[in-house]
Amino acid sequence: MLKAVNLCKQFERTTKEGRKTKKQEFLAVDHVSLEAGRGEIVGILGPNGAGKTTLLRMLGNLMSPTEGEICLYDEQGEKIEEEIRRKKSIGYLSGNTKLYPRFSIREYLTFLGELYGMEREQIEKRVEQLIALFSMKEFADNRIEKLSTGQTQRASICRTLMSDPRLYILDEPTLGLDILSADTIINFMMHQKKEGKTILYSTHYLEEAEAICDRIYMIFQGKIVAQGSPGQLMEETGKDSLRGAFQQIFENLQDKGKE
């Protein structure tokens, strides 16, 4: 299970006042608390610039919070130490994830297994499992720079799977993919859910989120503004789809801002 309490991330920006420039501090993530349980897919939704990626990067140990605490627990409820969590317990995927272009998928996964300290036999077995799981046998030995967008995304997912992490953080994993490639990723998430893994999932495709998320946190201007299951959010807003609920929640926020 993942638990985050009162997370804040402060940045500095430069603003102009006439001919003068002024440095101003602001919170990209503003006292956010959330939980994600074992065998649960939790959606992080919000408009562009809401703070989603900054939040996910903190939860994935890629960025340190200015304030607050993040804890990851094992199946027995014991807290996992940060060093172990950083190395093997979290699989992070985003559109900005880069792979070594001159490696083949097989070479790249083997390289990762060595970084994780896995035994040679274990590495070979895991690589073959992943190649089979994502139907990559036909292009597993091609250079990554020669792969299509969908093939590269499958390779990226395999990267997150190599260490068999407890927690997956997926930042817009189906963005720009064709239907078949997107379905591969959705099926992967559902399979990992059945395996008892914890998944945090950010997307702009609200129909996907409605179909697969157990719970959702909506974020706006760095703050959680709504949370609950897709059904609860639809019931609270009187809408028959998550897209409608999303629009209603943010229209209400914009109206309040005008008052």
Task: Explain the overall architecture.
The strands form 2 sheets. Strands 5-6-7-3-8-9 form a 6-stranded mixed sheet, with helices on both faces. Strands 2-1-4 form a 3-stranded antiparallel sheet. Helix 3 packs across helix 4 (about 120-135). A hairpin with a 2-residue loop joins strand 1 and strand 2 (about 20-35). The protein has 9 helices and 9 strands. The chain has helices at about 50-60, 80-90, 105-115, 120-135, 150-160, 180-195, 205-210, 230-235, 240-259, and strands at about 1-15, 20-35, 40-45, 65-70, 90-95, 165-170, 200, 215-220, 225-230. Helices cover about 40% and strands about 30% of the residues. It is globular, with a radius of gyration of 20 Å. The chain is of the alpha/beta class and about 260 residues long.
Draw up the topology in text.
Layout: E1 2-17, E2 20-36, E3 40-45, H1 52-59, E4 67-72, H2 82-89, E5 90-94, H3 105-115, H4 120-133, H5 149-161, E6 167-171, H6 179-194, E7 198-202, H7 206-212, E8 215-220, E9 223-228, H8 230-237, H9 242-258
Parallel strand pairs: 3-7, 3-8, 5-6, 6-7
Antiparallel strand pairs: 1-2, 1-4, 8-9
Helix pairs in contact: 3-4, 5-6, 8-9
List keywords for this structure.
single chain; about 260 residues; alpha/beta; six-stranded mixed beta sheet; three-stranded antiparallel beta sheet; 9 strands; about 40% helix; globular
- Tell me the structural class: alpha/beta
What kind of sheet is the major sheet? 6 strands, mixed
Proportion of residues in extended strands: 25-35%
Low-confidence stretches: none
Helical residue percent band: 25-40%
| SSE pattern, N- to C-terminal | EEEHEHEHHHEHEHEEHH
Distance between the termini: 40 Å
- For the residues shown, what is the average pLDDT? 86
Shape annotation: globular
In total, the number of strands is 9
* Count of individual helical segments: 9
Radius of gyration: 20 Å
How are the strands of the largest sheet arranged?
5-6-7-3-8-9
